[in-house]
Amino acid sequence: MGEATDYRKLRSDFVQVLRERRDPEVPLRVELANPVEIPLYQDDNPPNAQVNLDPSLKADSENSEHVLKEENLHLIIEEGEQGRLPLLIFSSKEDTHERKPAVVCLHSTGNCKEYLRPLLKAYASRGYIAISLDSRYHNERASSKNTYQDALVSAWKTGETMPFIYDTVWDLIKLADYLTQREDIDPSRIGITGLSLGGMHAWFAAFADTRYAVVAPLIGVQGFGWALDNDKWHARVDSIRPMFEAACDDLGKRAFDKEVVQKVWDRIAPGLASKFDSPYSIPAIAPRPLLILNGAEDPRTPLEGLEVPISNAQRAYKESHCPDNFKMIAEPGIGHLATPYMIKEASVWFDRFLKA
Protein backbone atom coordinates (compact mmCIF):
# COMPACT_ATOMS: atom_id res chain seq x y z
CA MET A 1 0.00 0.00 0.00
CA GLY A 2 1.46 3.39 -0.99
CA GLU A 3 2.00 6.22 1.45
CA ALA A 4 -0.68 8.41 -0.13
CA THR A 5 -3.17 5.56 0.21
CA ASP A 6 -2.22 5.22 3.88
CA TYR A 7 -2.98 8.90 4.44
CA ARG A 8 -6.36 8.56 2.78
CA LYS A 9 -7.14 5.63 5.10
CA LEU A 10 -5.92 7.61 8.10
CA ARG A 11 -8.16 10.52 7.12
CA SER A 12 -11.13 8.20 6.70
CA ASP A 13 -10.48 6.65 10.11
CA PHE A 14 -10.34 10.08 11.72
CA VAL A 15 -13.59 11.24 10.16
CA GLN A 16 -15.21 8.03 11.35
CA VAL A 17 -14.13 8.84 14.93
CA LEU A 18 -15.66 12.32 14.54
CA ARG A 19 -18.97 10.73 13.49
CA GLU A 20 -19.18 8.36 16.44
CA ARG A 21 -20.48 10.77 19.10
CA ARG A 22 -22.63 13.06 17.00
CA ASP A 23 -26.16 14.21 17.55
CA PRO A 24 -28.22 13.30 14.47
CA GLU A 25 -27.49 15.46 11.44
CA VAL A 26 -30.18 17.66 9.96
CA PRO A 27 -30.39 19.15 6.46
CA LEU A 28 -27.91 22.02 6.33
CA ARG A 29 -29.65 25.37 6.56
CA VAL A 30 -28.74 28.98 7.25
CA GLU A 31 -30.53 31.45 9.52
CA LEU A 32 -29.89 35.15 9.85
CA ALA A 33 -28.58 36.18 13.28
CA ASN A 34 -28.06 39.40 15.19
CA PRO A 35 -24.59 40.79 15.88
CA VAL A 36 -23.25 39.89 19.33
CA GLU A 37 -23.28 43.06 21.41
CA ILE A 38 -21.31 41.73 24.39
CA PRO A 39 -19.17 38.67 23.59
CA LEU A 40 -18.69 36.08 26.32
CA TYR A 41 -15.06 35.53 27.28
CA GLN A 42 -14.43 32.45 29.43
CA ASP A 43 -10.75 33.12 30.15
CA ASP A 44 -9.92 34.30 33.67
CA ASN A 45 -7.56 36.79 32.05
CA PRO A 46 -9.32 37.71 28.81
CA PRO A 47 -7.22 39.26 26.05
CA ASN A 48 -7.63 42.74 24.70
CA ALA A 49 -11.02 43.22 23.10
CA GLN A 50 -9.58 42.61 19.63
CA VAL A 51 -6.64 40.73 18.17
CA ASN A 52 -3.45 42.73 17.78
CA LEU A 53 -2.44 43.03 14.13
CA ASP A 54 0.77 44.00 12.39
CA PRO A 55 0.49 47.67 11.25
CA SER A 56 0.70 46.63 7.60
CA LEU A 57 -2.51 44.63 8.02
CA LYS A 58 -4.24 47.12 10.27
CA ALA A 59 -3.85 49.90 7.73
CA ASP A 60 -5.69 47.85 5.13
CA SER A 61 -8.80 47.68 7.31
CA GLU A 62 -9.11 51.31 8.39
CA ASN A 63 -12.46 52.97 7.54
CA SER A 64 -13.66 49.59 6.32
CA GLU A 65 -17.30 50.09 7.39
CA HIS A 66 -17.99 51.93 4.15
CA VAL A 67 -16.61 49.25 1.86
CA LEU A 68 -17.15 45.98 3.75
CA LYS A 69 -20.25 43.89 4.35
CA GLU A 70 -20.82 42.05 7.63
CA GLU A 71 -22.93 38.90 7.90
CA ASN A 72 -24.04 37.29 11.15
CA LEU A 73 -25.44 33.82 10.52
CA HIS A 74 -26.33 30.57 12.27
CA LEU A 75 -25.53 27.42 10.34
CA ILE A 76 -27.80 24.60 11.53
CA ILE A 77 -25.86 21.35 11.24
CA GLU A 78 -27.32 18.85 13.72
CA GLU A 79 -29.86 18.36 16.48
CA GLY A 80 -29.09 19.56 19.99
CA GLU A 81 -28.09 22.88 21.48
CA GLN A 82 -24.58 22.74 20.01
CA GLY A 83 -25.91 22.08 16.51
CA ARG A 84 -26.32 25.80 15.84
CA LEU A 85 -23.00 27.09 14.45
CA PRO A 86 -22.59 30.90 14.76
CA LEU A 87 -20.72 32.58 11.90
CA LEU A 88 -19.26 36.05 11.43
CA ILE A 89 -18.38 36.85 7.82
CA PHE A 90 -16.82 39.91 6.20
CA SER A 91 -16.56 40.61 2.48
CA SER A 92 -16.31 43.54 0.11
CA LYS A 93 -19.51 45.38 -0.76
CA GLU A 94 -18.23 45.67 -4.32
CA ASP A 95 -20.01 43.08 -6.47
CA THR A 96 -17.49 41.87 -9.04
CA HIS A 97 -19.49 38.73 -9.96
CA GLU A 98 -16.25 36.79 -9.48
CA ARG A 99 -15.73 34.01 -7.00
CA LYS A 100 -13.22 35.05 -4.34
CA PRO A 101 -10.76 33.20 -2.14
CA ALA A 102 -11.87 32.63 1.45
CA VAL A 103 -10.02 32.41 4.76
CA VAL A 104 -11.47 30.80 7.89
CA CYS A 105 -10.01 32.29 11.10
CA LEU A 106 -10.42 30.45 14.42
CA HIS A 107 -10.19 31.77 17.98
CA SER A 108 -8.32 30.46 21.02
CA THR A 109 -9.60 28.83 24.23
CA GLY A 110 -12.15 30.94 26.12
CA ASN A 111 -12.31 33.43 23.27
CA CYS A 112 -14.87 34.20 20.53
CA LYS A 113 -15.27 35.03 16.87
CA GLU A 114 -15.75 38.77 17.59
CA TYR A 115 -12.20 38.92 18.94
CA LEU A 116 -11.00 38.26 15.39
CA ARG A 117 -13.06 41.06 13.84
CA PRO A 118 -10.01 43.22 12.89
CA LEU A 119 -8.36 40.23 11.24
CA LEU A 120 -11.51 39.40 9.30
CA LYS A 121 -11.77 43.01 8.12
CA ALA A 122 -8.12 43.01 7.09
CA TYR A 123 -8.59 39.94 4.93
CA ALA A 124 -11.89 41.20 3.48
CA SER A 125 -10.35 44.55 2.58
CA ARG A 126 -7.77 42.65 0.50
CA GLY A 127 -10.26 40.66 -1.54
CA TYR A 128 -11.05 37.63 0.62
CA ILE A 129 -14.29 36.35 2.08
CA ALA A 130 -13.27 36.15 5.75
CA ILE A 131 -15.11 33.80 8.11
CA SER A 132 -14.95 33.10 11.82
CA LEU A 133 -17.08 30.95 14.11
CA ASP A 134 -17.64 30.24 17.77
CA SER A 135 -16.05 26.93 18.74
CA ARG A 136 -18.17 24.43 20.66
CA TYR A 137 -19.15 25.65 24.13
CA HIS A 138 -17.87 29.18 23.46
CA ASN A 139 -19.57 32.59 23.28
CA GLU A 140 -22.98 32.12 21.57
CA ARG A 141 -22.68 28.39 22.29
CA ALA A 142 -22.06 28.96 26.01
CA SER A 143 -24.26 30.00 28.94
CA SER A 144 -21.54 30.99 31.41
CA LYS A 145 -17.79 31.44 31.83
CA ASN A 146 -17.55 27.81 32.89
CA THR A 147 -19.38 26.21 29.96
CA TYR A 148 -16.31 24.96 28.08
CA GLN A 149 -14.52 23.61 31.14
CA ASP A 150 -17.79 21.98 32.30
CA ALA A 151 -18.15 20.34 28.89
CA LEU A 152 -14.64 18.92 29.16
CA VAL A 153 -15.35 17.45 32.60
CA SER A 154 -18.60 15.97 31.32
CA ALA A 155 -16.82 14.47 28.32
CA TRP A 156 -14.37 12.72 30.64
CA LYS A 157 -17.13 11.40 32.87
CA THR A 158 -19.63 10.33 30.21
CA GLY A 159 -17.65 9.83 27.01
CA GLU A 160 -20.59 11.27 25.08
CA THR A 161 -18.94 14.28 23.42
CA MET A 162 -15.50 15.41 22.24
CA PRO A 163 -15.29 19.12 23.11
CA PHE A 164 -11.49 19.25 22.93
CA ILE A 165 -10.68 19.79 19.23
CA TYR A 166 -12.76 17.03 17.64
CA ASP A 167 -16.32 18.42 17.92
CA THR A 168 -15.29 21.75 16.38
CA VAL A 169 -13.41 19.94 13.61
CA TRP A 170 -16.72 18.30 12.73
CA ASP A 171 -18.25 21.80 12.62
CA LEU A 172 -15.50 22.83 10.21
CA ILE A 173 -16.34 19.95 7.88
CA LYS A 174 -19.95 21.15 7.83
CA LEU A 175 -18.73 24.73 7.37
CA ALA A 176 -16.84 23.59 4.27
CA ASP A 177 -20.11 22.13 2.97
CA TYR A 178 -21.65 25.60 3.29
CA LEU A 179 -18.72 27.63 1.97
CA THR A 180 -18.37 25.52 -1.16
CA GLN A 181 -22.05 26.20 -1.92
CA ARG A 182 -21.73 29.98 -1.74
CA GLU A 183 -21.77 31.71 -5.11
CA ASP A 184 -19.22 34.33 -4.01
CA ILE A 185 -16.52 31.84 -2.92
CA ASP A 186 -14.14 29.90 -5.15
CA PRO A 187 -14.44 26.39 -3.63
CA SER A 188 -10.88 25.55 -4.70
CA ARG A 189 -9.41 28.51 -2.79
CA ILE A 190 -10.42 28.16 0.86
CA GLY A 191 -7.73 28.69 3.50
CA ILE A 192 -7.83 28.07 7.23
CA THR A 193 -5.89 29.51 10.16
CA GLY A 194 -6.33 29.82 13.90
CA LEU A 195 -4.72 30.80 17.18
CA SER A 196 -3.80 28.23 19.88
CA LEU A 197 -6.92 26.02 20.21
CA GLY A 198 -7.95 27.53 16.87
CA GLY A 199 -4.58 26.47 15.48
CA MET A 200 -5.30 22.90 16.53
CA HIS A 201 -8.74 23.17 14.95
CA ALA A 202 -7.16 24.40 11.71
CA TRP A 203 -4.58 21.60 11.74
CA PHE A 204 -7.10 18.81 12.25
CA ALA A 205 -9.73 20.32 9.95
CA ALA A 206 -7.19 20.42 7.13
CA PHE A 207 -6.21 16.82 7.92
CA ALA A 208 -9.89 15.76 7.87
CA ASP A 209 -11.11 17.78 4.89
CA THR A 210 -9.10 18.40 1.73
CA ARG A 211 -11.38 21.28 0.77
CA TYR A 212 -9.23 23.42 3.05
CA ALA A 213 -6.67 24.15 0.36
CA VAL A 214 -4.13 26.28 2.27
CA VAL A 215 -3.35 25.95 5.97
CA ALA A 216 -1.58 28.16 8.54
CA PRO A 217 -2.05 27.13 12.21
CA LEU A 218 -0.56 29.44 14.85
CA ILE A 219 0.79 28.15 18.22
CA GLY A 220 -1.30 25.00 17.92
CA VAL A 221 0.74 22.19 16.40
CA GLN A 222 2.43 19.90 18.91
CA GLY A 223 3.37 16.29 19.48
CA PHE A 224 0.89 14.91 22.02
CA GLY A 225 2.51 11.48 22.16
CA TRP A 226 5.99 12.98 22.37
CA ALA A 227 4.86 15.16 25.28
CA LEU A 228 3.67 12.07 27.15
CA ASP A 229 6.90 10.18 26.52
CA ASN A 230 9.11 13.12 27.49
CA ASP A 231 7.20 14.51 30.50
CA LYS A 232 6.32 17.71 28.62
CA TRP A 233 2.53 17.56 28.99
CA HIS A 234 2.18 19.85 32.00
CA ALA A 235 1.66 23.17 30.19
CA ARG A 236 -1.09 21.76 27.97
CA VAL A 237 -2.79 20.06 30.91
CA ASP A 238 -2.73 23.25 32.96
CA SER A 239 -4.69 25.05 30.22
CA ILE A 240 -7.71 22.76 30.79
CA ARG A 241 -7.00 21.76 34.38
CA PRO A 242 -10.52 21.07 35.76
CA MET A 243 -10.97 18.05 33.50
CA PHE A 244 -7.71 16.51 34.66
CA GLU A 245 -8.58 17.21 38.28
CA ALA A 246 -11.83 15.31 37.78
CA ALA A 247 -9.91 12.47 36.15
CA CYS A 248 -7.48 12.30 39.07
CA ASP A 249 -10.38 11.98 41.50
CA ASP A 250 -12.10 9.31 39.44
CA LEU A 251 -8.88 7.32 39.00
CA GLY A 252 -7.94 7.57 42.67
CA LYS A 253 -4.78 9.56 41.92
CA ARG A 254 -3.37 12.23 44.19
CA ALA A 255 -1.73 14.16 41.32
CA PHE A 256 -1.53 14.26 37.55
CA ASP A 257 0.79 11.77 35.93
CA LYS A 258 1.36 10.27 32.48
CA GLU A 259 -1.28 7.58 33.06
CA VAL A 260 -3.95 10.17 33.87
CA VAL A 261 -3.11 12.29 30.84
CA GLN A 262 -3.06 9.27 28.53
CA LYS A 263 -6.44 8.06 29.79
CA VAL A 264 -7.97 11.51 29.38
CA TRP A 265 -6.76 11.91 25.77
CA ASP A 266 -7.96 8.39 24.90
CA ARG A 267 -11.36 9.16 26.41
CA ILE A 268 -12.10 12.65 25.07
CA ALA A 269 -10.12 12.62 21.80
CA PRO A 270 -9.36 9.04 20.70
CA GLY A 271 -6.12 8.79 18.72
CA LEU A 272 -4.96 12.31 19.59
CA ALA A 273 -1.73 11.05 21.18
CA SER A 274 -1.34 8.06 18.87
CA LYS A 275 -2.53 7.36 15.31
CA PHE A 276 -3.83 10.89 14.58
CA ASP A 277 -0.97 12.76 16.27
CA SER A 278 1.16 15.28 14.37
CA PRO A 279 3.78 12.79 13.04
CA TYR A 280 0.97 11.24 10.98
CA SER A 281 -1.70 13.90 10.46
CA ILE A 282 0.65 16.77 9.52
CA PRO A 283 2.25 14.99 6.51
CA ALA A 284 -1.23 13.85 5.48
CA ILE A 285 -1.97 17.49 4.57
CA ALA A 286 0.53 17.32 1.68
CA PRO A 287 0.58 18.49 -1.07
CA ARG A 288 -1.62 21.38 0.10
CA PRO A 289 0.40 24.41 1.27
CA LEU A 290 1.03 24.25 5.04
CA LEU A 291 2.72 26.89 7.19
CA ILE A 292 3.25 26.08 10.89
CA LEU A 293 3.92 29.08 13.15
CA ASN A 294 4.97 28.59 16.78
CA GLY A 295 6.89 30.39 19.48
CA ALA A 296 10.38 28.95 19.92
CA GLU A 297 9.89 28.96 23.71
CA ASP A 298 6.27 27.79 23.82
CA PRO A 299 5.87 25.12 26.55
CA ARG A 300 2.58 23.92 25.05
CA THR A 301 4.12 23.25 21.64
CA PRO A 302 7.74 22.27 22.40
CA LEU A 303 9.90 22.38 19.30
CA GLU A 304 11.61 19.11 20.23
CA GLY A 305 8.24 17.42 19.91
CA LEU A 306 7.91 18.63 16.33
CA GLU A 307 11.16 17.21 14.98
CA VAL A 308 9.54 14.00 13.73
CA PRO A 309 6.36 15.66 12.38
CA ILE A 310 8.46 18.22 10.50
CA SER A 311 10.78 15.56 9.11
CA ASN A 312 7.81 13.45 8.01
CA ALA A 313 6.15 16.48 6.42
CA GLN A 314 9.28 17.49 4.55
CA ARG A 315 9.51 13.98 3.13
CA ALA A 316 5.82 13.95 2.17
CA TYR A 317 6.04 17.31 0.42
CA LYS A 318 9.25 16.29 -1.36
CA GLU A 319 7.59 13.08 -2.56
CA SER A 320 4.67 15.20 -3.77
CA HIS A 321 7.17 17.29 -5.78
CA CYS A 322 6.27 20.49 -3.93
CA PRO A 323 8.78 20.97 -1.08
CA ASP A 324 8.16 24.73 -1.07
CA ASN A 325 4.53 24.11 -0.05
CA PHE A 326 5.67 23.35 3.51
CA LYS A 327 7.28 25.79 5.94
CA MET A 328 7.84 25.95 9.68
CA ILE A 329 8.52 29.23 11.52
CA ALA A 330 9.55 29.27 15.18
CA GLU A 331 9.67 32.88 16.36
CA PRO A 332 12.67 33.34 18.68
CA GLY A 333 12.04 34.28 22.29
CA ILE A 334 8.28 33.80 22.06
CA GLY A 335 6.22 31.56 24.35
CA HIS A 336 2.55 30.74 23.94
CA LEU A 337 1.60 33.91 22.09
CA ALA A 338 0.23 34.54 18.60
CA THR A 339 2.23 37.61 17.62
CA PRO A 340 1.49 40.24 14.96
CA TYR A 341 4.50 38.85 13.08
CA MET A 342 2.95 35.36 12.94
CA ILE A 343 -0.41 36.73 11.82
CA LYS A 344 1.29 38.72 9.07
CA GLU A 345 3.31 35.70 7.89
CA ALA A 346 0.11 33.69 7.68
CA SER A 347 -1.47 36.39 5.54
CA VAL A 348 1.57 36.39 3.22
CA TRP A 349 1.20 32.60 2.92
CA PHE A 350 -2.44 32.91 1.93
CA ASP A 351 -1.68 35.66 -0.57
CA ARG A 352 0.98 33.47 -2.13
CA PHE A 353 -1.19 30.42 -2.60
CA LEU A 354 -4.79 31.67 -2.72
CA LYS A 355 -4.28 34.69 -4.96
CA ALA A 356 -1.89 33.16 -7.48
Tell me about this structure.
This protein is of the alpha/beta class and 356 residues long. The chain is 38% helix and 19% strand. It has helices spanning 3-19, 55-58, 117-125, 147-158, 166-179, 197-208, 224-229, 234-239, 241-251, 258-268, 278-281, 307-319, 340-354; strands spanning 25-32, 68-78, 84-92, 100-106, 129-133, 185-195, 214-218, 290-295, 326-331. The chain has a nine-stranded mixed beta sheet with strand order 1-2-3-5-4-6-7-8-9, sandwiched between helices. The longest helix is centred in the first third of the chain and has 17 residues, at 3-19. The chain is globular and about 60 Å long. The relative contact order is 0.13. Residues 103-337 form the AB hydrolase-1 domain. It comes from Acacia crassicarpa.
Structural class: alpha/beta
**Biggest sheet layout:** 9 strands, mixed
| Shape summary | globular
Mean pLDDT: 94
The side-by-side strand order for the widest beta sheet comes to: 1-2-3-5-4-6-7-8-9
Number of strands: 9
State the order of secondary-structure elements, H for helix, E for strand. Answer: HEHEEEHEHHEHEHHHHHEHEH
Uncertain stretches? none
Helix content: 25-40%
**Rg, Cα atoms, Å:** 19 Å
The portion of residues forming beta strands comes to: 15-25%
**Helix count, DSSP H or I runs of 4 or more residues:** 13
Distance between the termini: 34 Å
